[in-house]
Design a protein that fits this description.
This protein is mainly alpha-helical and about 500 residues long. It is built from 22 helices and two strands. It has a two-stranded antiparallel sheet. A hairpin with a 4-residue loop joins strand 1 and strand 2. The chain is globular, with a radius of gyration of 22 Å.
Length: about 500
């Protein structure tokens, strides 16, 4: 068993063990077991970074074993510069989620912790699978733990939100399954994704495949106009569910564009790039305006996620190295920042039991340490230089200007809208006089809450001040992808 298999199966097996433990008995033991398993899963991913060779675009740490011989389905794993960083990111966020639930979840603790550990392993499987059917199994399996998490530990409308989340994401994926089956027969009975990259496909087939993949990945990102499930899912999900949903699950769709849409259907990707760019800019502009009028903090950050992920798809379809690399950096950065923002909302909700902006005001007077961290994450969400939020957005804006100045100008408006809706929320929630008795009696963050927010703050600062380790490891793979996409695959 290699490092990638350990990163996948260690949390899944640990989660299964937790599920076998009684519902509410030994809750404290369950918490410690979950934390140890999450930390161990994260430590397993660190040698992937240190042992990764940034000079090659080839797949590394590969594992290739027979799985279903009859249909030539293989258990094939590997990472390159496009997928490397999402493996430790997933494991890191899982550690944060376990810490965040320590004192908050007191019913079905084993099921809650088990669900997130299993989900962590499955998501790592999505980022590392190099067999089409294996990818599909992992991709669809992510729905189950998240569906259960929203449906069991969510808010008053949790059943509605869980069904909407499940139906939206499952419906789009069915078209992708048809595309995978077509590619299987077209390649002579192989599910090898790397072999699919070399297939000479006619434009008509590429177009159909492109939109089949887009149906699955656009919903997951989510792109406008198939984004409507996301605010409901975020509002009703428990804090841990919102963190994982924003920090990792949205990245599964964007990653799908890199691994499937661009390399398998390069001609169709070039043909329909303006369609994707238009949808991305609508997400940046329109959804930014929608975020401005939100009164629920979770909804505001949910719409903010749609706008920021619009930057990712915009960068990918500019077809230059700055845009693609900027999109990947934005995905990693958004994982840190959005997760931190939802954790901040969770800290307030645990005390006041309200997500409405109007329920707060002057929090800095009673929670100074927490307010300092929350304002920092708010500034990072605006793209403040020196934070990770600046790096990816700036790279994509520069890439867009290289393609067309006016498109770049439109893309840059996200910095204005992002600052408007984020800072307006920060002003109303954290600054000014103490608004009511609820705020007056607030206690500042405890050591557990400070630890999880401080870890994310360090990650945001590290990536913002020194993004070179991130970009260096993806540079060669990005260049190879663009060279591949530039060559026509029309037979």
């Amino acid at each position: 068993m290699g490092l990638l298999s350990l990163a996948i199966w260690l949390p899944i097996v640990a989660g299964a063990v937790l599920l076998a433990i009684g519902r509410d008995e030994h809750a404290n033991t369950v918490r410690w077991m979950a934390l140890v398993a999450a930390i161990a899963s994260f430590l397993v991913t660190l040698p992937l970074i240190s042992g990764f060779d940034p000079a090659t675009a080839a797949m590394q740490f590969q594992e290739n074993l027979a799985w279903i011989d009859r249909f030539n389905v293989r258990y094939h794993l590997g990472v390159d510069g496009l997928s490397l960083w999402f493996v430790p990111l997933t494991a890191f966020i899982t550690v944060i989620v376990v810490i965040s639930a320590w004192e908050v979840i007191d019913e079905r603790v084993n099921q809650y912790m088990g669900a997130f550990l299993i989900l962590s392993g499955i998501m790592v499987g999505v980022f590392t699978a190099l067999d089409g059917l294996l990818f599909y199994v992992f991709f669809e399996a992510t729905l189950i733990p998240m569906y259960i998490t929203i449906g069991v530990w969510g808010g008053p409308r949790r059943v509605y939100a869980a069904f909407k989340f499940f139906l939206y994401t499952l419906s789009g994926s069915l078209l992708m399954l048809v595309a995978l089956i077509y590619l299987y027969f077209k390649s002579g009975g192989s599910f090898d994704i790397l072999q699919w990259h070399k297939l000479p496909l006619p434009m008509s087939a590429q177009a159909l495949l492109f939109f089949a993949f887009m149906a699955a990945f656009a919903v997951k990102v989510p792109m406008w106009p198939v984004h409507t499930w996301l605010p409901d899912a975020h509002v009703e999900a428990p804090t841990g569910g919102s963190v994982v949903l924003a920090a990792i699950m949205l990245k599964l769709g964007a990653y799908g564009f890199l691994r499937f849409s661009l390399p398998i259907t390069p001609d169709a990707s070039h043909e329909y790039k303006w369609f994707v760019i238009a949808l991305s800019l609508i997400a940046v502009l329109y959804i930014g305006l929608v975020a401005l009028v939100q009164q629920d903090m979770k909804k505001l950050i949910a719409y903010s996620s749609v706008a920021h992920m619009g930057f990712v798809t915009l960068g990918f379809f500019l077809f230059n190295d700055l845009g693609v690399a900027g999109g990947i950096v934005q995905m990693i950065s958004h994982g840190f920042i959005s997760g931190a923002l939802f954790l901040c909302i969770g800290v307030l909700y645990d005390r006041v039991h309200s997500r409405e902006i109007a329920s707060y005001g002057g929090v800095v007077n009673t929670m100074p340490k927490f307010a300092a961290l929350a304002v920092f994450f708010g500034m990072a969400n605006c793209g403040l230089p020196g934070t990770s939020g600046f790096v990816g957005e700036w790279m994509v804006i520069l890439a867009t200007v290289k393609v067309d100045f006016w498109l770049g100008l439109l893309a840059a408006t996200t910095l204005v809208f992002g600052a408007a809706y984020t800072l307006w929320m920060v002003k109303r929630v954290y600054f000014g006089p103490v608004a009511n008795d609820d705020v007056r009696t607030l206690s500042d963050v405890n050591s557990r809450e400070f630890l999880m927010l401080a870890l994310l703050a360090l990650a945001v600062l590290w990536m913002g001040v020194n993004p070179k380790p991130f970009t260096d490891r993806m540079q060669v793979s990005v260049g190879e992808l663009l060279k591949h996409v530039a060559v026509s695959k029309i037979n």
